[in-house]
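Form 7-S
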Amino acid sequence: MSFINQSSVLEFTLSGLSHSRESQFIFFVFFLVLYLMTLSGNLAIIIAAQIDSHLRSPMYFFLSNLSFLDICYSSVTIPKMLINILLETKTISFGQCIAQLFFLHLFGGTECFLLTVMAYDRYVAICNPLRYHIVMNHRFCFCLVAVSWVAGFLHSFTQAFLTYQLPFCGPNQINHFFCDVHPLAVLACADTHVIDMFIIANSGMISLVCFVVLMFSYLGIITTILKIHSADGRRKAFSTCASHILVVIFFFGPCVFIHLRPPVNYPADKLISVSYTVLTPLLNPLIYTLRNQEVKNAIKKFFRRKISSLYPTKIHIKDHQ
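Output:
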C-alpha cells in the first residue's frame, strides 16, 4: 500500500444540509445558536469542576474531560458548516477533508472510550464504595483518560490513513455537510472492498470493546442496586448513573448506525449525523446539570461571584435592606 495518494481530485464540494437558498439563513442562525450553547454549557461544567472543591472527585474529573471533548468534537464540523452555509461554492481541499475526518474520529473515538471509563467509575462507586477513592485515585484516573486519548488517536489514524489511500478521480461532490469515511468511500474510483472491511473492523472492534465493558459495568450496577433494601437508597444509587446512561444512548446509537455498515449513503444519514455532531455535545451538559444538584450549585456559585465582582455596591446595599 502506497503512502502517496494518487488522486487527481484536489478539492471536494460539500452538498450541505439543504440546497434551498430560503432555508440557508434559518439554518445558519439555528446552528450558530446551538454551537454557542454547546460552548457555553460545556465551558460552564469545566469551570465549575475547577473552582468548586466539592467537584474534585473522579466523576467530575471525567465529566470535565468529556465537556472538553464535546467542545472539540463539535468544533470540527459546525464552524465549517456555518461558513459553507453563507458561501455559494462549498468547497474543501483534499488535505482539509482528511484532516477533518481525522479529528472527527479522534475526538469521537476518545469520547467512546471515555464514556466507557465513566461507566467503570460508576461501577466502582456503587459496587465497591468503601474502596472507591483507593481504586479511583488521581494517578489511575489520569492514566484512564490518557489511554482513552491514545486509543482514540490509533482509531482516527487508522480511519484517516485508509481513507487517504483511496484514489479519487471524480466526481468530487460529497453528499454530506462534512468529510467522513462513508461519504468519501463512495466517491473512490477503485474497488474499496478490502479497505471497507478494515474500516468496519476497526470501528467494530471499538464498539465491541466499549459495549462489553459497558454491559458488565451496568450489570454489576443493576445487581447491586437491586440488593439495596430501601427505595430511597435505590433511587439515589440509580440517579448517580442515570445521566451517564442517557449520554451513552444518545452518543453510541447514531454512531453505531453510521459506522458499522458498508459505505452506502442513506437519505437519513445527514439527519443522524446532526444528532451526534451537533445535538449530543449540546445535550451532554444539559443532562448532567439538570440531573445533578452539585453541578448546578457550583455553576450558580460561580455566576454569583462574577455578578458580585461586577456590582459589589448593589449586592452590598441589597444585603442590608
